[in-house]
Write a structure and sequence with these properties.
2 copies of one chain form a homodimer.
Chain A (H helix, E strand, L loop, with lengths): L7 H4 L2 H4 L10 H10 L1 E5 L4 E2 L1 H6 L2 E6 L2 E6 L5 E7 L4 E3 L10 E4 L3 E6 L1 H10 L1 H27 L2 H15 L8 E3 L4 H8 L3 H13 L3 E5 L2 E4 L2 H8 L5 E5 L5 E5 L2
Antiparallel strand pairs in A: 1-8, 2-7, 3-6, 3-8, 4-5, 4-7, 9-11, 10-11, 12-13
Helix pairs in contact in A: 5-6, 7-10, 8-9
The structure holds a DNA duplex (30 and 30 nucleotides).
Chain lengths: 255, 255
DNA sequence: CGGCAAGTTGAGCCAGGTCAACTCCGGTGG
DNA sequence: CCACCGGAGTTGACCTGGCTCAACTTGCCG
């Protein structure tokens, strides 16, 4: 079979159209089979992938949008333990029983529930595809590890700075643009970083006051001073900038 | 080749002798080749896997001991972002360049630097071995995600309770024993949980005062009341126990 | 047995959580 | 087209969990 016979539902999907992602690595017949046996799904903010459904369809690939893994504490406190985006493949085989968090959409999410059997077969046989999903899982793991490090000891402002860089790194066309897309709401951001929405708000304000960033809207951010933001993210929260006469910028530390 | 020809260095290694771990899934010739091309290493507390060495040997398998991934902030604050133990395979291919943390031993660690080439070949061809490392990486990812959730919103006492369960789950012979081995020092524990050693100490004391645990030594813990500890870990930090006349224990909430 | 790092205890303080009031904004219906 | 509504975001005032610093005890290793 040729790729000309790609199913309609796959043509538009980033997992197929982006050459770095999983489905683009499949041979025509593999893609065909996987497509036939899998199911796409659109979610909107607040929708949850139910435990029941995850038992039948434990492998989920994200085409677009942001899906969160949330943990709920007894007294109602929530945390967002991880964010999954375009290209992420979430493999929940055999763990729906454990006390895993719920998968909840933070906006419009389009995803594909992959057939476990076909997925397994492809993983065994298609080395290219195997490498892609291995890379993706490693990414997820290291992202989570980094995130743990971020929220463990960093202060609010530092966490936020780190998050801005995380968004920048995950941006589709990395493109070094200073414009960073913030794909989640303030409220979700707070839960992801382990802080209060009020604190998030205050920290954004602080960054703007120091002229390090500029927020044209709630979902976009322009970084005006990358090095300073980077230093804040790395734990030098008191840095500021100091323009030297010849126009160069020098990073100084207050106090 | 038969497994009788297993190299001496592999005979004692848990990766080979534990039937759930990677090397036990290898065919005789695969094990032989991997063994020949790989290098074992013993570390003691404080030893670091240098970036240089990780470029040549980016894949590391832990035989025993606890290896930490540490992030260092500019002003000296440290965090332990992840703990790796027996059976974990750490794949750092192509990421030494990024701002990854350092791999530092928290005690005596024995590990094996796997040959990248042989590892890759095995991953492509040996489905059983492939499944084992895929499982392991998923475990690492979900552990990190859970940990993120734990430290994001939980209070000190709750974090500690969660950590005790994490230790219990990772224990070799899970065996439902109430004796939990705490494989890291208080100081490291504090850095892993994002708190101060003083706070860790106070929290242990609190758990003992409430008669939920008992600490025969710094590295061992007896859980006297699993359900209450579980509830604390889940966010009900004010629970206590209340013995009913007939001997059953009922979990109640203070206040 | 001495020396040093790890762990503990106590007292004081501050970053950020909490609570309440308010504004902003997008969607909905008349 | 505007009035209304509800959730999201912001702002201010206050309060507390846990960080900080310093002094002390314990445990381990040579």
């Amino acid at each position: 079979m040729k790729s000309a016979e790609v199913k309609d539902k796959c043509k538009q999907c980033s997992l197929y159209s982006d050459s770095r992602l999983f489905c683009s690595k499949l041979r025509g017949d593999e893609l065909c089979e996987l497509s036939d046996q899998s199911r796409t799904l659109s979610m909107k903010r607040g929708d949850t992938l139910k435990a029941k459904a995850l038992e039948t369809w434990p492998i989920v690939a994200i085409d677009g949008g942001v899906l969160s893994m949330q943990h709920l504490l007894q007294d109602g406190r929530k945390t967002i333990a991880a964010l999954f985006m375009r290209g992420d493949i979430i493999d929940l085989r055999d763990i729906s029983n454990r006390n895993r968090g719920a998968l909840i959409a933070l906006g419009n999410v389009s995803l594909c529930r992959l057939s476990t059997q076909v997925f397994e077969r492809i993983m065994e046989k298609n080395v290219m595809a195997q490498k892609v999903i291995w890379e993706n899982l490693r990414d997820q793991a290291f992202r989570a590890i980094d995130h743990s490090g971020d929220i463990a000891k960093k202060q609010a402002l530092e966490k936020l700075a780190s998050f801005i860089f995380e968004c920048r790194n995950r941006q589709e066309n990395f493109s070094k643009s200073e414009i960073v897309d913030i794909p989640v709401r303030r409220i979700d951001l707070a839960e992801y970083l382990g802080m209060q929405p009020e604190t998030v708000s205050r920290c954004f304000k602080e960054l703007e006051k120091r002229e390090i960033v500029e927020a044209p809207s709630l979902s976009a951010l322009r970084i005006k001073n990358v090095p300073v933001l980077r230093r804040i993210a790395n734990g030098d929260k008191d840095v500021t900038i100091n323009r030297i006469d010849n126009g160069r910028i020098k990073v100084l530390k207050i106090a």
